[in-house]
Specification:
Structural class: alpha/beta
Strand content: 5-15%
Radius of gyration: 27 Å
Distance between the termini: 44 Å
Largest sheet: 7 strands, parallel
Order of helices and strands: EHEEHEHHEHEHEEEHEHHEEHEHHHH
Helix content: 25-40%
Number of helices: 14
Length: 417
């Protein structure tokens, strides 16, 4: 992307004629072009004397346009999990290795990011490997590695558990307890959006150990809403490229004197001034977004992604609604009227508490009908004799615990998360 400043006009068609067959898109003070034509278009603009151009920093241009590496195919013979991969997963693993040992896997949930990550680990060696994931998925990660490979895996639950020289699986909260000087061969971060907050302690700890890691893979199927949430993840992958976030200090009226011209926050997060105290100090908020085409090009250069609809041929979904009895309508109506009176008299906070209480009462009334429905599925052998796995979603913890008790009573094998 090329930005141009000032009130200037030019014939966009003349640019298209100069570079026939190339994709050139013009919008409000932005020109989107193919990366291969970047330098040619910049030279053309400068020859037309169209004000000052805001160009890509040289190190960022070199980073985006860098050549992909080619994996050693002979090393795939030693990957135990490789024979369990589907064809599209083998392609994902290949594309991931072409990134040079550091990258994102942004594929949708259900496409097999975990099994591809196991192949990534085996390719680069199983010595000094760290796998970071949420506490609720640690055991599942260990089980998957043991299921597809014969490698030793150590589950680190407390600081008393010693690290092994093989594969270590820990939670995000345990990252701060890791030795700072230990050099990891490979780091895998599952659900990497957990470290989107640059000020969080676990994010700082992960950034510290990622500097010396030989290879690194981040995995997340959760979309991010703002560019600022992407910065800490990119910095963990390539700390030398995404070294600085902003040229402004926290409480400063003037930009600090920094040599490098590239600042992620200033370029993509559309900083806005916020006056704090009595207006004597200025701080900057980075909640906006701009130059998204350019940011997308950066993300594509460090990531792979596949959608479930493109690789999995699933049958259509069938939705059915089950109606159950709940609280008496008159009782519910009287409670809603009381909540409206509270909202006008006491305040919205008190009214919200009453709404939450009403929701819990309604859910408690529906619980027996839900449990009866689950028992009916088991008795009709829909769940018990089926070779397929089933997923049961519930919002309230009381529902989750009650469903677990029923399944235990009926001798059903299940995993509760």
């Amino acid at each position: 992307m090329v930005d141009y400043n000032g009130d200037c006009t030019f014939d966009v068609k003349s640019i298209a004629d100069t570079f026939p067959g190339k994709s050139i898109i013009h919008s409000d003070k932005h020109i989107s072009i193919q990366l291969s034509e970047y330098k040619n278009v910049v030279d053309w603009f400068e020859s037309q004397a169209l004000y000052r151009l805001v160009l890509l920093p040289d190190n960022l241009y070199d980073f985006i346009s860098r050549a992909r590496s080619k994996p050693d195919y002979t090393r795939f013979e030693g990957i135990q999990v490789y024979h369990h991969l589907r064809d599209y997963q083998k392609k994902l693993l290949w594309d991931l290795l072409c990134l040079g040992g550091r990258g994102f896997n942004l594929s949708e949930m259900g496409t097999g990011k975990t099994i591809v990550a196991i192949g990534f680990i085996e390719y680069y060696g199983t010595d000094n490997v760290l796998v970071v994931c949420p506490s609720s998925t640690r055991q599942n990660m260990v089980n998957e590695i043991r299921r597809f490979t014969s490698h030793e895996v150590t589950l680190i639950k407390t600081t008393r558990t010693p690290l092994s020289n093989g594969i270590n699986v820990i939670s995000f909260d345990m990252v701060r307890a890791l030795p700072k000087r230990k050099v990891w061969n490979t780091i895998i971060v599952d659900e990497s959006h957990y470290v989107k907050n640059l000020a969080a302690k676990r994010t700082k700890a992960l950034l510290q150990i990622s500097k010396t890691a030989g290879h690194m893979l981040l995995m997340s199927g959760t979309p991010l809403s703002k560019p600022v949430e992407l910065y800490s993840q990119l910095k963990s992958l390539y700390p030398s490229v995404f070294r600085l976030f902003s040229q402004f200090t926290r409480f400063s009226k003037k930009p600090t004197d920094v040599a490098t011209p590239y600042f992620f926050g200033d370029r993509y997060c559309k900083p806005t001034r916020v006056y704090v105290g009595k207006g004597s100090h200025i701080m900057y908020e980075y909640k906006g977004s701009e130059r998204l085409t350019e940011l997308n090009a950066i993300l594509k250069s460090v990531s792979i992604r596949c959608k479930k609809a493109d690789v999995l041929h699933l049958p259509p979904k069938h939705r059915r609604t089950r109606y159950v009895n709940s609280l008496d309508f008159k009782t519910s109506r009287s409670q809603l009227e009381r909540i409206e009176i509270l909202r006008k008299g006491v305040g919205q906070m008190v009214a919200n508490r009453e709404v939450s209480k009403l929701v819990r009462e309604h859910s408690a009334c529906k619980l027996p009908f839900v449990l009866a429905y689950i028992k009916n599925l088991v008795n009709e052998h829909i769940l018990k004799n089926s070779r397929e796995k089933h997923i049961l979603f519930a919002h309230h913890l009381s529902y989750i615990h009650a469903c677990a008790e029923v399944l235990t009573e009926m001798d059903m094998d299940f995993i509760q998360i």
